[in-house]
Here is the input.
Amino acid sequence: MADHFVTHAREHMLARYTVNGVNASDFMDVTHSIESWDDWCKAWSARAAIHEGMGRQALAEQHYISAAEHLCRAAATYHFGKYLFVKDMAQHRVAHKKAVECHTLALPHMNPPGERVLIPYEGKQLAGVLRKPVHVAGAADSKGRYPLVLMTMGLDSTKEELITFESTFLDRGMATLAFDGPGQGEAEYDMPIRYDYENVVGPVIDWALQRDDVDGDRIGIWGISLGGYYGPRTVAFEKRLKACVSNCGPYDWGALWEQLPALTQDAFRVRSHSANEAEARERANLLSLRGIAQKITCPMLVIAGGLDRLCPPEDAKRLASESSGPTEIIVIDDGNHVAHNRAYRYRPQSADWMAAQLHAKTR
Here is the structure.
């Protein structure tokens, strides 16, 4: 009989994995081939290695479209192997390194291609991927600049997970910059999660403004899960951003602590570099929009899943009601966390909304 964690994954993670690039049959094969959470990362990494091998072979044979497809799937599969798997950081690091490696190999062959970038941040660097909609005629302005969407992920998300999300914005004439913030991806080992995310995004905007292919007057921010807190928190203080999409973020992370799954609590402890559960809870209390939401003045789209077990729809409704700017809300009654099971009910709509706010040139 499968343990609690594997059972939880089988019952709740299918939509999350498959909508973000994992093959559905791989999900069923892997999750039903193990009974213990101890085997999770190893089993997923073994399946990812199959896709990596096909990708490397395609590269060697100069089948670049196929190579990108295989390597992107390998990256996502490796990523989900280490997703919430913080009990064995040695395995975790190996899988994460592989995810980054496969994604980086795929970047020049993706459509449109991606550019790996390193953004100066407090004496260190944040790793990101910039993609521009070169496949959309007229997307750039007369100076060759594109509107830009900053993509902020959740608690245990990374830039390697966002390939399918990026496409919705790219196809509508917007560039995307997915970056690993403190406590995420390549930054998770040296930098703890920060509640004051405006101090993370500020340097990212500074970096973007130095480029000649980004329109500094047309930058928006998008966030999912914990990123759905980071985005609103950021635009409350960072007024250079013109729009915000918040998808299933918490209003007050600390207030939700008791109802969070054990794996989520443990991941936050590790990502926040807390010494123990008590310290993690204390730091979780800092991630709150109390007294902050009223400072939001830019247009904002808030998305909620009616069946969200992590960030209840009441949080989204409270955020929308307290914002001082023009705010719209989409509640997907039968949507789970981030409404991954009903992605078609918000992904195109949120990208259309962002395109309108940033005056993007769509097809």
Notes: The longest strand covers residues 214-224. Residues 112-357 form a domain with the Rossmann fold fold (CATH 3.40.50.1820). Strands lie at 114-121, 124-131, 146-152, 175-179, 214-224, 244-247, 300-305, 327-332. The mean pLDDT is 96.
